Every structure is written in C-alpha cells, then in structure tokens.
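Sample pair:
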Amino acid sequence: MKSEKYTKARGQWKQDQIDSELHRIKKHFERGDIENLYRYIYVRHSWIYKTILDHKLKSKLKIAKKILLVGSGMYPYSLLDMYKRFPDKSYYGLEISESFCKLARKIIDKTPTNVKIINADAFEFDYSDFGIDDMIFISCDVESEKTIEQIVKTSEAQFWVCAPYEKVWMFNLLSK
C-alpha cells in the first residue's frame, strides 16, 4: 500500500471511530440517559482491561495507584470500565482535542468515577507524576513512537499500546 493510501485509510478509520462514538453519545443525550454510557459499557470496548489480560499484567495492576490512557477521546469508556472493576485506583485520560475533553467531562460528571481528563499533547506532556508502579496505556489511534519517547524522557512509569493494538485499522481496511 502506498504511503498516501495508507495515510488516507488510517484517517478514514479514525473518522469512522469518531462518528460511531458521536452517534452513541448523541443518542444518550437526546434520550436524557447520559449516565447509561457508564452503566452499560460493552465488554468488547474494555481495551485497557483486555491489554492487562493479554500481557498478563494483573500483578502490576494490583500495585498501581494511577492509570493513564493517552488518547482517551470524547467517550473514555475503557477508563470507566476500569473504574467499575477497580475503583481504588486513580484514573486519568490524556486527550489533545479540547472539544473531546469537554464532552468526556460532561459524561464523567454523570458518573460516580474519579476519572480526570487532561487536555494536552501527548508528545509534550510531562508524565513525571506517574511513577514506576503506575500504568500508562496508549490508545491504538495515537502515534505511539513519539508518545513513548516522551514517557521515557519524563517518567519511570510502565507503558503499553492498548488493545486492539496499533494496526487494527489496517486489518479493518483489508477485510472490507
């Protein structure tokens, strides 16, 4: 696949994800049941937990105090899922889009969670508040190489690219 086609396909996959999430969120806002976005998180969207299971990280999870998702988006369902499973942790979402952060906060405000959404660029963010026992997960639609460089530069935290992993959009494209 040529570079231009690859870039276009990746962009289309990202837009499809955004459209899908916006549709789901809009539906709940229209019905006045935004809290159901927290109550009914689909297991197939539990990407942080799936990553923990896939990489056999439960022992690391036990000692982690903070969990960060880089690229948390407008509907941070994976963080909400983790809070439901492990409410004793502190959860953070890092998102570059200010409008996505505002929407995520509106959803979170309707939940009992302690998820904090941070509006910042992952390539420039100072991860020093996350220590060696904390866990950082990088969304599959974030440029992980530059993000990892910044995490390593500014923190001792451990990090993983989150399921469904980096190239899921390519698989979706090829299976069409």
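The first strand starts at residue 66 and ends at 70.
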